[in-house]
Amino acid sequence: MKAVRSEHFPLIAILIVLIAGFATMTDGKSLHTDNLLNILLQSSMVGVVSVGQALVLITAGIDLSVGGTAVLVACIGASLLSTEPSFLGSIPLAAGLVLMLLAGAGFGAINGVLVSRLRLAPLIVTLATWQIANGTAFVVSHGGDTIRAPGAVAFIAHQSIGGVPIPAFIFIAFIVLGYFILRHTTFGHSIYAVGGNEATAWLSGIRVSTVRFWVYVISGLCAAVAAMVQMSRVMAASPNVITGLELDSIAAVVIGGVSLFGGKGSIIGVLVGVLILGVINNGMNMARLNIFMQYMVKGGIILVAVAIDAWRRRRLS
Amino acid sequence: MTFGEVVRQYFQRAVRNEHFGLIFILIALIALISVMTHGAFLNGTNIRSLLLRSSITGVAAVGQAFVMLSAGFDLSVGGVAVMTTCLGAAIMTESPRFLAHLPMVPGVLIMLLVASGMGAINGIFVSRLAMPSLIVTLATWQIGKGAAFQISKGGETIRYLPDSLAFFGKGDIGGLPMPVIIFGLAVVLGYLVLQHTRFGRSIYAVGGSEGSAWLTGVNVMHIRFWVFVISGFCAGIASIIQLSRVMCTNVMVLHGLELNSIAAVVIGGVSLFGGKGSIIGVLIGTFILMVLGNGMNLLGLSTYTQWIVKGVVIVAAVSIGALRGR
């Protein structure tokens, strides 16, 4: 009874039904350990970004720039680490990774300043910085060249511990971190307060613009981590990669029950949302749907998820 | 009153005009680009191609302005427009790979119906289900792109369209190219509807304050629904101009129309929070955006650099709007 009444019950039920459905359709092939690990690996990039996106959405903001930021950071990282003579290159691995994190956080900070200090609409700000990031990625990669990353980068995505790939651990670490921040820190509670009612948050002494600023920095940082995983998976970076991270992360977060109007949602929901999206993506790949059909299906899923959110809100009010 | 006083008064009134800043920026931009390109910008052919290109973005921007004045967003215009061009091409083409072979008039009418229908779907979700327009139109953008791919049989370029279709893109009346006439009509109609009809005033009311609009008897849901239908219709017109200019299409055309139309509207001074702005501003905003793009092309800047510049311009435009609003 307690399980059924849990707020995440419908989501988990949907996840189980999806897994069972795809398993029947593929004669159990989708349940092979290889495939399950693959889902986890593929979900980890979207998952890490979704944790940052969730923090932003809970403050009633939105970060459309994550895909652009990730592409830019991957190009910067690869060109810094690259051993090819045409790029800056050949800096030590650790320094390169730290610089990637800094670049991601820095780009997030630009969003943060524009949204929190200048009070611009996050949608437009991040749409514009998404464009800026994509353009800069082309400049960094000398107009769209594929930049090959050195072998040392492989450890991120091509190694596993006990059979589980490292990106999955990174994803879990971010989920735990996100859960801890939102549940057990003052900063986390302020995020809910700002998203729930900005005026009340301000009156109760919360520095609204500081909270706003930092969620975008965190989101940029998460995008940078996703960029590392992506770079390591394909051992290269290119601005021509369309990651779709912004749409996927928003979809995952919204499916996971975070309200687009802020103030509501949990990281556990986000985790389930990411897995639901991952299972659907994987199923569509196994069913050999082409990318545009996948677009349509995902678009439909987002609509349904948001409709459910809207319906729930109305029932509550 | 002496002549000098008349001139001064006229000048003062011009400076105080709400669009003065925008017009000033446009003129400065044109002057700057003309100088930098040694006059190549002012070449007749270039001005003509600039106007033709502006009409597609401009028509979409007029529809976008209706939505944004009601405090919504329509991110789906690019997806709807590409889907409409593919659908129109598929039903009108004489190629044996497609079956319909419809004549031009019903073909164009179906394009307008389908585009308006996609707008109506956005409208129903946003107005009846009270869903955020951003997410709804993001999803329908994806659906439009996917449908375009399906209709064009997996991304084929569809050719062999009836010659009569070329009228909307290549034809002219009294020396004025058709796309420019259509754009002009859209601006005049948009202006009349927004300034001089009850429906238009209600859009401002809904965007300004939904609660007050409702209390004064405005049918908020009705307004919310119809602005999206108008935006879809405008996307349909833009896709007809596009199809008719190029006489073939594929899934890549009109990519980025949503961003360009939003940029034009925002540069034109329409508030992102609704309720403020005018079609004249949108007209000037469209020209600023297109002149900027054209100038960067003439100067040989790469597409990527152009993305960066456009992104910066949008942020600057929104910042100015926000600072003015304070």
Quaternary structure type:
heterodimer
Mean pLDDT of chain A: 87
SSE order of chain A, as H and E? HHHHHHEHEEHHHHEHHH
Q: What distance lies between the first and last C-alpha atoms of chain A, to the nearest angstrom?
A: 25 Å
Largest inter-chain contact set? A-B, 46 and 45 residues
Which band does the percent of strand residues of chain A land in? Answer: under 5%
Uncertain regions of chain B: pLDDT < 50 for 5+ in a row? Answer: none
Global geometry of chain A: globular
Question: Gyration radius of chain A, to the nearest Å?
Answer: 19 Å
What is the CATH class of chain B?
A: Mainly Alpha
CATH topology of chain B: ABC transporter involved in vitamin B12 uptake, BtuC
> What number of domains of chain A?
1
Termini of chain B, distance in Å?
A: 38 Å
**Largest sheet data of chain A:** 2 strands, antiparallel
Tell me the number of helical segments of chain B per DSSP (H or I, 4 or more residues long): 14
Class by SSE composition of chain A: mainly alpha
Tally of discrete structural domains of chain B: 1
Q: What are the segments of chain A in which pLDDT stays under 50 over at least 5 consecutive residues?
A: none
Provide structural commentary.
- The complex is a heterodimer of chains A (about 325) and B (about 325).
- Chain A has about 325 residues and is mainly alpha-helical.
- Chain A has a single domain (about 35-285), classed as ABC transporter involved in vitamin B12 uptake, BtuC (Orthogonal Bundle), CATH 1.10.3470.
- Helix content of chain A is about 75%, strand content about 5%.
- Chain A is built from 14 helices and four strands.
- In chain A, the strands form two sheets. In chain A, strands 1-4 form a two-stranded antiparallel ribbon.
- In chain A, a hairpin with a 2-residue loop joins strand 2 (about 160) and strand 3.
- The longest helix of chain A has 27 residues, at about 210-235.
- The relative contact order of chain A is 0.19.
- With about 325 residues, chain B is mainly α.
- Chain B has a single domain, classed as ABC transporter involved in vitamin B12 uptake, BtuC, CATH 1.10.3470.
- Chain B has helices at about 5-15, 20-35, 45-70, 75-90, 105-125, 135-150, 165-170, 180-195, 200-210, 210-215, 220-245, 255-265, 280-300, 305-325; strands spanning about 170-175, 175.
